[in-house]
Model the fold of this input.
Amino acid sequence: MIQVDLSGTVGDLALSLRFEAGAGLTALMGPSGSGKTTLLRAMAGLERLSGRVQVGDTVWQAEDRFVPVHKRAVGYVFQEPSLFSHLSVEGNLDFALKRSPKTVDKGAIVDLLRIGALLPRQVARLSGGERQRVAIALALLSGPDLLLMDEPLSSLDQAARAEILPLIRDVAERVPVLYVSHDPLEVARLTQRVLYIQNGRLSARPAVTLDGLSQAEIEALALKALGS
Amino acid sequence: MWEAIRVTLLLAAVTTPLLLLLATPLAWWLAKGAGWVRDTVAAVVALPIVLPPTVLGFYLLIALGPHSPLMGLLQPFGVRTLAFTFTGLVIGSLVYSLPFAVQPIRNAFEAMGSRPLEVAATLRASPWDAFWSVALPQARRGYVTAALLVFAHTIGEFGVVLMIGGAIPGQTEVVSIRIFQAVEQLNFAEAHLISGGLLAFSFVALMIMLVIDRRFGARSAGIRP
Done:
């Protein structure tokens, strides 16, 4: 169980966010600039908002404490696939593995994300989709209790998205995932549990709800969103 | 001539690692933010690029001389003056070449941005760990450039060394001063020899820098005042 109650001001945006999420994948949707990324960064401890963050039995942030990023059991997948360019793929994985406080099955994670063939490669020689798969593997190798994913597919082409989307579903079976996206179609394929955020606040219902819509209607909405 | 070459190489070999060490925290701090305090410090660090070496040398001579407050602090340790000593020369070189170490390293840290450090933190690396295992290796091109620039710059020093070193053969006489004195004595053969050597050395150093820049791709870690 993840409990979040955070508030504060970043730039011109006043945020006040309170929610709970359980196992599996919870999507966080909303227009650009609504505070999605800020929320994820604050949950990871990369940014400071005031309030409380609790994951399982562990309090990451409360009034009297702020656990630094490197002491939180958090995995973070950034929008732009972020790897260490001075290391090979295997070097990247070992970086995470070496610092993970838990025993993690490297082989299983490598298989899960199908990156076995990439291990000896240099990061610069990977495609965007390959990078993001390695980045997800990195996040899992650190043994997270919560995986935060910030639009991990938005910088990738259609083929790479189609390839990674089912992998993310598999990942969510192992660790709770909070998944930011503004692509309704993508979210519809991943989960039924969606939080909507607008102007720094969570709304109970979105402007348009996806529940009860047919796949065709959702796709039409997605196309409209892409066109605008 | 060989004495002068020995002193010069020793000076450059001592100055370069010391300066990389000194420049690292400074470059890090300058790269990690903005504001008028940082701008002021950055300007002070860059001063030796535009200041006449004699001006710098003059102030250093005063600071390292027996009547300066700085030397007053060292008096209890039996040090009266560092002017006209090899140690004084090293201190002068450190100040004189500071911008040539700080700039490339700072540029490298800035080019890296904060993302690799954020990734490191989410992978459980403490800030200290992340600095050693991510920031330093990612900035290695900046370090190579800085080391080459500082080494080459120290080899070619003239004004500052002349002011605070006094050209004592075997102690503070470096090659650039040796050239000046050879010419004054109409010993053109020696002047040719050393000048040609310095020319070749400088060219090779710059070539190495360009090749490294190309090899590692992307942005050149140029000097920015």
In short: The two ends of chain A are 37 Å apart (CA to CA). Residues 2-82+144-227 of chain A form a domain with the Rossmann fold fold (CATH 3.40.50.300). The first strand of chain A starts at residue 2 and ends at 10.
